[in-house]
Amino acid sequence: MVHRSPFDPGFGSFTLVDVETSGLRAGDHRVLSVAALTLASDGSVADEFHTLIDPGCDPGPVHIHGLTRDVLRGWPPFEHVREQLSGLLTDRVMVAHNAQFDYGFLADEFTRAGAVFPVARRLCTLALARRVSPPTPDYKLGTLAAHYGVRQAHAHNALDDARVLAAVLRALIADAAGLGIAPPLLVCPPKENYQSRQGMPQSRSGPKIPCAFVYPGRLETGRRLVQGMKIAITGDTSTDRIELVGRAEAAGLDVTGAVSRRTSLLVTNSPNSATDKARKAIEFGTPIVAETGFLKLLEDVLPGRRKDAAGPTSAPAPREPATKRAAQPQGPLSGSRFLVLGGTHDEAASARARIAELGGSVAVNMSASVTDVDVLALAGAVSDRRYSKATELGLRVHGPELVDGTTATPLSTRGAALSDEVMLLVRGQVIDLPIAEHGGEWNLRASWTQSGTWEVDLVAFLVDGAEQVASDADFVFYNQPEASGARLAADGPNEQSLALSLDSLPDNCCRIVVAAVLDGDGMTFGDIGAIEIEATPGTEGAIVARATLDAATEERTLLLAEIYLRGDVWRLRAVGQGYTTDLAALARGYGVDVAG
């Protein structure tokens, strides 16, 4: 039986959508079928729209969606249904399961049709399910439907999936209301359409073609250019800039948008100009050459070392056994999941660390998986709205005895016990990713306290054996959310994820370093609290590993995790190392060209 929400969540502003597509990448693939359901204020379906689409191209994985060329022939192209869809979406919240997928495809189809996608906010039911955390093995739509008693007649049929989603949404909203969880509405365009930030590489209209050669160092006076050297250009040039860049890249050089200490050469006809690149070149001692001199150098560029020839040399790592699985902490708190409330940042961080040592799991937000609340008599706990919700739900509230050694007997869990399949990692612990069981598609998700209004960004560096990016294209961040084998996504206002395709990473990449950074002045991780990370196979898979990590009071960047190659095994390490410096300083340390 589907639960009803005891409060009005704004159902009347929701439009549920589902699309079937010719592939997985918006921009490269097309929509084949679309369903849109508007909801009434009580959550019932008010209006339904569904149509097949003739994309004029190969329909892709027919074995999944069953939509062949013959089936699609004669149905309207997307531009013929765009106006009707726009009417169903304008001034409403778009709801979908794994919403960034549906949002991306529909936004691209609207762009092709010469129109603006009229969605200002969206709600992902996958992100909502993760917040609620019902006792299900994973958060796939079919699994949630079975849990809530919703009949699913035809999976991968857009209309049936949308109808199922409507029932699942009502159930999730009801459970969220009972836990005091606000639906994770996301303002659109979300973090996929990042704005430029001062000092960081600028966004591109399309992905930069990575330089195929390993960076060989800076240019020495009187020597020849070597493939892989970093070249910057500033000021007016006689040769068209696009042509000049094209000739440099064709010669095997890495043309960058900024001057750093790793820049091999600055090309400018006005070396004494006031441009930032010229100023930085003088400061760093970067060789400067005029356009004519550069064109001469391009005639005789020495061959460099190709990245694909370099191979994925494993980065230095502590000696470890051939297979690695972190020892699951055991103790009196095993099987319980705690939410620490109140106290200073240092007090709360100490309590979280002690709970992990005693075998417990630590949450950063209220959910159905929280079995206990630990207040430790910390100041301000009672004033936290989650405290009253915990007592209303009948959760146990503990004092200092929980972590001071006086709790001698195991605590029995309330509700479902934590799955033994979820590895609870503490700082520095390592596990082998079960690639043989789940394949090479993985998601690393980061979340933080839901009640905050702070800006946290997830970033990643795809580095080689020397702990350096081969080019700026291997730095994944808000201004460049996609690289070969890695893509950032915003799943909610307090949740971001990095999707990894380990088989598609650059050939020289042997480590992915993932960090959380703060945007804006004055805020530190001492204000925000812990960051929770979870590793799952694919977007909707069951959680394989989880860690809750704290930075110190003054730190503004926090290394969360490393996914690295040890021999032929990919491993995950929980890091938890913080720094007081900002993203630009962190990026420079991994070899990214950052202006300023």
Distinctive features:
596 residues, alpha/beta, seven-stranded mixed sheet, six-stranded mixed sheet, 16 helices, 27 strands, 23% strand, globular, disordered N terminus
Number of strands: 27
Q: What's the story with the biggest beta sheet?
A: 7 strands, mixed
Beta-strand content estimate: 15-25%
Number of helices: 16
- Specify the structural class: alpha/beta
Distance between the termini: 59 Å
The average pLDDT is: 84
Strand order of the largest sheet: 15-25-24-17-22-21-20
Helix content: 10-25%
Write the layout of secondary structure elements.
Elements: E1 14-21, E2 31-39, E3 45-52, H1 62-65, H2 69-72, H3 82-89, E4 93-96, H4 99-112, E5 121-124, H5 125-132, H6 141-147, H7 158-179, E6 185-187, E7 230-233, H8 241-250, E8 254-255, E9 265-267, H9 276-284, E10 288-289, H10 291-298, H11 307-310, E11 337-340, H12 345-357, E12 361-363, E13 372-374, H13 385-392, E14 396-398, E15 423-425, E16 430-432, H14 435-438, E17 441-447, E18 456-463, E19 475-476, E20 482-483, E21 486-492, E22 495-501, E23 511-518, H15 525-528, E24 531-537, E25 545-549, E26 557-566, E27 569-579, H16 583-589
Parallel strand pairs: 1-4, 4-5, 7-8, 7-9, 9-10, 11-12, 11-13, 13-14, 15-25
Antiparallel strand pairs: 1-2, 2-3, 5-6, 16-27, 17-22, 17-24, 18-19, 18-23, 20-21, 21-22, 23-26, 24-25, 26-27
